# Entry
Amino acid sequence: MKKLIAGILLLMLVLAGCGSGSDFEVSLKEAPKYKAGESFPVVIEILQNGKPASGLEFTAYLEMAKMDHGTLELNFEDKGNGIYESSVELPMAGEWIANIEGAADGSAFEHVITFEVEKE
Ligand SMILES: [Cu+2]
# Structure
């Protein structure tokens, strides 16, 4: 019984630890579109504690939800005011997943966004 309680306390600590990076709010402002051979902008907004977070460095890894097209790696340009821009030429329209991984002030943040890509 004591072991179980210790285990639960440990789990709570681990969960609290994971939550420390969650003061980042990541949202997709503009999803890319799809048209063969063309690149489209991808715009992401990041807030930290509710305020625009500038100066962040992160990478987005794009994958299709239900199909294997490999992973597209996107780097973003800091436009200021929490807005980050990139562009991508996608292989097809449909449901895509962006895994966003970055770091700020020594703490890592991670965010997953699922979005729909429309055919232009
Ligand atoms: Cu596909």
Q: What stands out?
A: The pocket of copper (II) ion is lined by residues 64, 67, 69, 92, 94 (CB under 6 Å). Confidence is low (pLDDT under 50) at residues 13-21. The longest helix spans residues 2-19. The radius of gyration is 18 Å.
